[in-house]
Amino acid sequence: MSGESDKKLNIEILPKGVENPRFQQRESGIVHTPYRLEIAFYNLIKSGDVEGVHGAIGRFMENALVVGRMSNDALRQAQYFAVSCITLATRYAVEGGLMEGEAYNLSDSYIQTIDKMNDVADILQYLVEKAIEITSLVSANKKRLEYPSYIRKAMKYVSAHLHERIRCEDVAAACGVSADYLSSAFKKNVGESLSRYVMKEKLEESKTLLAKGFEYGEIGYYLGFCSQTHYIECFKKEFGTTPKRYAKSNMPI
After folding, report:
1. 37/82 Cα distance (integer angstroms)
2. For the segment 208-217, what is each residue's pLDDT rounded down to a tens digit?
3. Is there a contact between 88 and 43 (Cβ–Cβ < 8 Å)?
4. Do residues 53 and 92 touch, judged by C-beta distance below 8 A?
């Protein structure tokens, strides 16, 4: 997180007392972080402003983010808070142009991971990482809107057929252009070959499946790799770790 990984999100919770919370807040002098600051943060996600999100998170690390008390149990409080943040962040991401299906799948995956976590600090760190991740996805999606329509159509085709073997000829046919033309135009516009793009999308999808509890042996089959060994090799080359280790580190019990 560019210098922020050694810091912790500074969260302060409103005082206990459900019968007269306003009284308790006046007595303690602790009040909820203003709504306008929350909206400003989620609008940074909506606009795909990764730098802005980094800055806002840095301020929340320096000055406490005061949130409502959702549970007197510290772990449940952190989980409830994280789930509410993820829900809002993904909805703002949709407003920012991220495809609904992708946003909802991310939301489900994030929340399932949070549900399995049992350390408050880990939950808050995970929340920071996912806020930046989803903002980056919105930013990347906005860049895609600048591509010619047939390039965007090719990307959409790839997304819809990740569980199949994807050939340039099939993508080109769906886009109404020749395979040679698509191959050349894709590299020119996107900055990488279509085959490289397909591989990256499959590997990113495999991370989502791992987080949902799929066995890595199944994933290679689902995503059309020629063998389990090939999938593991590609995953390690892309992310610097094996699918098994990734799953273990991203699905705390």
Report:
1. 17
2. 888 778 888 8
3. no
4. no
Q: Where are the alpha helices (DSSP H) in the chain?
A: 21-28, 35-46, 50-62, 74-95, 100-116, 120-144, 149-160, 168-175, 179-190, 194-211, 216-222, 228-239, 243-250
Spatial separation of the C-alpha atoms in residues 35 and 66, rounded to whole Å: 11
pLDDT digits (tens, 9 = 90+) for 177-208: 999 999 999 999 999 999 999 999 999 899 88
Mean pLDDT: which of 101-105, 145-149, 174-178, 216-220 is highest?
A: 174-178
| CA distances from residue 182 to 98, 131, 143, 166 in whole angstroms, order as listed | 24, 34, 18, 14
Beta bridge partners of 67: 13
pTM value is 0.66
Tokens matching residue 80: 């409830």
